[in-house]
Design brief:
heterodimer, A: Alpha-Beta Plaits, 31% helix, B: alpha+beta, Alpha-Beta Plaits, five-stranded antiparallel sheet, 4 helices, elongated
């Protein structure tokens, strides 16, 4: 009894997933211009230090557009002494971005803070990745859509010919894109502390994007 | 003829409509071995904060790599998470050459690596050998009619067993994918610059195969739904 039910269920599921017509999926992968530098900051301070106090350190250094992206409390170990000393700190995470051309200047500011941190900062890490802005992604999306449709038409035409069919109008379209993301963007941190919280990562969307389109054409009998 | 059948069934359009024509789903596939006629180099370069994409591109071109695509990906640590050095700009570069030219390109990269000069600090690369898109598409044109034949034969087999007749094609779709992914046959991971004293990391990893594989299996799949008549 179980087998016929399974058979029928599978048949109904399969029938529900298939739309009549010639279905094709196409994609194009492109490298976009990196026009935005995204910085992530992880700054630790003694318990009781406010987010505003820590943010002020970066504002004073010349960083603007800072946003607080997270707060946590973690235990850090100071390895600069003979006996490593665990310390509990409040950790604030921030993000800001600058135009790609401003990457080096902003990195130098961050580097100044990393190599010579003010007394308020007990730990400090930063990372910076270059990414395509949403505006750049959207512009490429608009450019590629007609090309994807042309690709889909060609592929579907070939498929229809192989099946002895004649392509009709477009019945359904869906499309999407995804970013490959930057890899290998590590945080640069003050050297004397190690953190028990290793969850920090950075990278952003990167510049390599793949745009997809799935197009189903009706069949003219 | 080879059927790779995950599922083959008669899908009646619901219990209430069982007396009208139903459909037969015929999924088929063929795996063919394609010649990897393309070598894709993935290169990671680190440079000083003052380095530029243009400098990286020029260095790669001078090394004999034609028209590399170079993008800066961000700021990275100078050496490792344990010994943080000055920040560097990380670059990612890609170059695709004909498979037959891969060795010459690799030699050029090796020459660049051994003479790497500031503002460039380190260079790593890997090479994947693949059939080009043109090769994959050309094979699709060959395989598509065969797959349709396979699907029709399968549908007829199923229809005969079920006492129905195969009608016209209602829907059709196909896809293609590498059965094993890209084959990376050569990897160099080299760090130069201020950290060369750290022999463990400075030593290049031994190169693997230096010639492209004989073939890469690609699987072409197709799903065809035929109308049926009682």
């Amino acid at each position: 009894m179980r087998l016929p039910i399974l058979f029928l269920l599978t048949a109904l599921i399969a029938a529900a997933q298939l739309t009549d017509g010639v279905a094709t999926t196409v994609s194009r992968t492109v490298t976009l211009t990196a026009d935005e530098a995204d910085f992530s900051i992880v700054a630790g301070a003694d318990l009781g230090t406010t987010q505003q106090q820590v943010a002020q350190v970066f504002l004073d250094a010349g960083i603007t557009g800072l946003s607080n992206t997270g707060t946590s409390i973690g235990q850090y170990t100071d390895y600069s002494t003979n006996q490593p000393v665990p310390q509990t700190q409040v950790v604030y995470q921030y993000a800001f971005n600058v135009p790609a051309a401003g990457l080096k200047d902003a990195a130098r500011i961050m580097e100044g803070l990393r190599t010579n941190p003010p007394a308020l900062l007990k730990t400090f890490q930063y990372a910076a990745s270059l990414n395509a802005s949403q505006a750049t992604v959207d512009a490429m999306h608009q450019t590629l859509l007609p090309q994807l449709f042309a690709d889909a038409q060609k592929r579907a035409q070939l498929l229809a010919s192989a099946g002895g069919l004649k392509l009709g109008a477009v019945k359904s379209v869906s499309e999407s894109y995804y970013a490959q993301g930057n890899s290998g963007i590590a945080y640069l941190s003050t050297a004397v502390f190690s953190t028990t919280n290793s969850g920090y990562s950075s990278g952003g969307g990167g510049t390599q994007y793949t745009f997809y389109a799935a197009v189903t054409y009706s069949v003219v009998q | 003829m080879r059927f790779s059948i995950a599922l083959a069934l008669i899908a009646l359009p619901g219990l209430a409509g069982a007396q009208t024509a139903g459909s037969i789903l015929a999924p088929v596939s063929r795996t063919v071995t394609l010649v990897p006629d393309e070598a894709a180099f993935s290169i990671t370069v680190a440079g000083t904060l003052d380095s530029t994409e243009q400098q990286v591109k020029a260095a790669l071109q001078n090394a004999g790599l034609p028209n590399p695509t170079v993008v800066a990906t961000g700021v990275s640590a100078g050496f490792s998470e344990y010994f943080v050095g000055p920040p560097q700009i990380a670059y990612s570069a890609t170059v695709t050459v004909a498979a037959g030219s891969a060795m010459d390109a690799a030699k050029g990269l090796e020459a660049l690596r051994t003479t790497l000069a500031v503002p460039l600090l380190s260079l790593q690369y890997s090479v994947g050998f693949n059939p080009s898109q043109a090769t994959v598409d050309a094979q699709r044109q060959v395989v598509l009619p065969q797959l349709v034949d396979d699907a029709r034969k399968l549908a007829q087999l199923l229809a005969a067993a079920s006492g129905v007749k195969v009608g016209a094609i209602r829907s059709i779709n196909d896809s293609v994918g590498s059965a094993v992914g890209s084959i990376s046959t050569m990897v160099r991971n080299v760090i130069t610059g201020d950290f060369s004293a750290l022999a463990l990391n400075a030593a290049p990893r031994p190169a693997a195969q230096s010639t492209p594989p004989a073939g890469v299996p690609y699987t072409y799949t197709m799903s065809v739904v035929f109308a049926t008549a009682l």
